[in-house]
Amino acid sequence: MVVVSSLSGFRILVTGGAGFIGSHVVDRLVSMNNRVTVFDNMSSGRMDFISRHLEDPTFRFIEGDLLDTDAIGSACKDIDLVFHVAANPDVRLGATDTRVHFDQNITATYNLLEAMRKSNVKNLAFTSTSTVYGEATIIPTPENYGPLVPISLYGASKLACEALITSYSHTFDMHSWIFRFANIIGDRGTHGIIVDFIDKLKKNPHELEILGDGKQSKSYLHVRECVEAMMFAVTESNDEVNIFNIGSEDATNPTRIGEIIVEEMGLSDVKFNYTGGSRGWKGDVPKMMLGIDKLKEMGWKNEWESERSVRETVKVLVGKGDNT
Ligand code: NAD
């Protein structure tokens, strides 16, 4: 069995490696001297997020779709470890399109697992989500919280992926790392509340529509800390299945995020219009903070609290910082 003990010198496939989080994963893996292959259908990925690596002879880019079993089958040849980051991450979409998360998350993950099984690839790191917990009654929510009752089709699809991964791990002697993320933000962000608010304020700098009552309390973590936590966990844990929450130890809310964006954009007298209700949309979990004791006990530390990560993200996305 291939066991990851230190993250250097491996042949690593990153699905979704041209996306927001995936491209940061790629940068970090390349910096540790791994031979990285990105597999991405470019549905939301961007070439400029990975173009810096294209001249590197140890780096490969494959434009391919996880729904194409031949394409993912050949991409898995001679690979030691897969970071499966590709997905449709739009939680809200499930309320209007009931198929997308089934195809892009569940079927895509099944296709990847089959490709790995056939090519004897034994290690998989997977980007899951806090939404698998649903409306947890224990906050901060630990990894062993249950029962897991997602309230969005996105959360349901990710929980199904987790179940496929744990059962493949057991049945086919694989190692897996499942990362349940809080809200991940940072440079190269292309979606989510901060991007939405900035776009809205660019169109109308006098008013900001905020979904819900603006009080939803959620934890935010900067993408660079998120990637470090993943690398740390893959290096330091080695059970058949390793499940970790990754987040910060506090939370903030849409009203406060709106205020920070208004400040950083140099605006004033912006009227906040709330659509009302305790959640932003059907499937929105109004209170989310993950327990991260498991990672902390192993030695990982969260550095920036939610609002610091929000502010640093806003700075780069409004052009006052380095968005590379
Ligand atoms: P993203 O949209 O920027 O990245 C997804 C990448 O996957 C894109 O490059 C896209 O082109 C690619 N992709 C999508 N479908 C594909 C397919 N069928 N075949 C090949 N490539 C495909 O999103 P992100 O925010 O970087 O999210 C990355 C992962 O982290 C996702 O699995 C998401 O569910 C998870 N996650 C993200 C957050 C967050 O706050 N951003 C929170 C929890 C979990």
Outline the fold blueprint.
Elements lengths: L10 E5 L4 H12 L3 E6 L6 H4 L9 E4 L5 H7 L5 E4 L15 H20 L3 E7 L23 H19 L3 E7 L1 E3 L7 H11 L3 E4 L6 E2 L1 E3 H14 L4 E6 L7 H11 L6 E4 L12 E2 L4 H6 L7 H12 L7
Parallel strand pairs: 1-2, 1-4, 2-3, 4-5, 5-6, 6-11, 7-10, 8-12, 9-13
Helix pairs in contact: 1-7, 3-4, 4-5, 6-8, 8-10
Bound molecules: nicotinamide-adenine-dinucleotide.
Nicotinamide-adenine-dinucleotide binds next to helix 1, helix 4, strand 5 and strand 7.
> What is the name of the CATH superfamily of the largest domain?
NAD(P)-binding Rossmann-like Domain
- The end-to-end span amounts to 37 Å
Oligomer, anyone? single chain
Physical arrangement of strands within the biggest beta sheet: 3-2-1-4-5-6-11
- What is the CATH topology classification name of the largest domain? Rossmann fold
Mean pLDDT: 96
Query: Structural class of the helices, strands and pairings?
Result: alpha/beta
